[in-house]
Amino acid sequence: MSTDPYDVVVVGGGIIGLATMLALHRCQPRLRIALMEKESSLACHQTGHNSGVIHSGIYYRPGSLKATLCVRGARALLDFCEKNQIPLRRCGKVIVAVTGEELPRLQELYRRGMANGVPGLSLIGPEQLRELEPHAAGLQAIHVPGVWVVDFRQVAESYARKIREAGGGLLTQRGLLRTRLRGNLLLETTGGEMESRFMINCAGLHADRLARRSGVRLPLQIVPFRGEYWELIPEKRNLVRGLIYPVPDPRFPFLGVHLSIRIDGRVEAGPNAVLALKREGYQKTDLSLPDLYEMLKFPGFWRMASRYWKTGLEEMARSLSKRLFVRAIQRLVPDIQEKELLPSGSGVRAQALDREGTLLDDFHLVQEDRTLHLCNAPSPAATASLAIGEHVAEVAVRQFKL
Question: CA angle, 146 as apex, 144 and 150 as ends, to 5°?
Answer without folding.
Answer: 120
